[in-house]
């Protein structure tokens, strides 16, 4: 029986994947807001300490977005905290548990890889204290997650496979995080044009069953995409995140 940890596994794509894996007989630890506030470094760290010493797969699916800038109690911009910091922490600190897996371990990061090319990492203002927009925050998160994958595969070689996966437009219920009228607009578009969460979970379950051979793989709805590998930028982000986590 595999042990699969899913951050953001109580609803949306993560919830659908958790249900599918449980039907297959896997031991699924689905993490939701009732288990820990993943925008908090302290709560995420305490959560990691409670997780098993052997994990076969880690799925990073938690996210939170807002039209207005929201600052956490630890002084971090909310989107950056959950979309970047928590994913860095979970993958980095659970690596020993993943390396202990009997099967080929995998980190599956649901992100915006290979999607909209606009956007960049704002090195001089990662918390977006100036000129915050939801688009800037989301695009910075997508670029940052690419670097997290590059750094994980390049600097800590081992058995773990790291997969960046962009499911594209999914009717995941994420529109409920937005204010009106955007909530209604996105919700209607998702219902009409988006993939269902159950359908989106199918290729994800298959990836966990058959991890790629390469240390790092980037996929856009199942199709390989090329990453603009920048080891220097990846190392820079890791240094920034390490310092940030140590200071919280």
UniProtKB/TrEMBL annotation:
Top-level division of the source organism's lineage: Bacteria
A GO MF term: oxidoreductase activity
Gene3D superfamilies linked: NAD(P)-binding Rossmann-like Domain
UniProt keyword annotations, A-Z: Oxidoreductase
UniProt keyword Membrane present: no
KW Oxidoreductase (keyword) present: yes
Transmembrane segment boundaries: none
Entry protein name: NAD(P)-dependent dehydrogenase, short-chain alcohol dehydrogenase family
């Amino acid at each position: 029986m595999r042990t699969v940890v899913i951050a953001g596994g109580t609803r949306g794509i993560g919830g659908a994947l958790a249900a599918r894996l449980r039907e297959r007989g896997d031991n699924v630890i689905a993490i939701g807001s009732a288990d820990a506030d993943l925008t908090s470094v302290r709560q995420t760290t305490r959560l990691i300490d409670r997780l098993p010493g052997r994990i076969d797969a880690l799925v990073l699916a938690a996210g939170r977005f807002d039209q207005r800038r929201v600052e956490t109690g630890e002084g971090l911009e909310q989107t950056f905290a959950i979309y970047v910091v928590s994913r860095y922490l979970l993958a980095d600190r659970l690596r020993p548990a993943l390396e202990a897996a009997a099967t080929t371990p995998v980190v599956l990061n649901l992100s915006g890889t290979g999607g909209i090319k606009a956007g960049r990492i704002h090195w001089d203002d990662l918390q977006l204290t100036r000129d915050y927009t939801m688009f800037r925050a989301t695009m910075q998160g997508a670029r940052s997650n690419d670097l997290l994958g590059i750094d994980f595969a390049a600097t800590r070689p081992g058995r773990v496979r790291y997969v960046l996966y962009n499911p594209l437009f999914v009717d995941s219920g994420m529109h409920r995080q937005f204010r009106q009228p955007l909530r209604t607009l996105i919700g209607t578009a998702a219902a009409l044009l988006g993939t269902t969460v159950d359908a989106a979970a199918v290729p994800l379950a298959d990836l966990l069953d058959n991890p790629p051979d390469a240390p790092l793989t980037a996929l856009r709805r199942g199709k390989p995409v090329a990453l603009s590998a920048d080891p220097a930028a990846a190392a820079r982000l890791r240094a920034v995140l390490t310092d940030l986590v140590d200071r919280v």
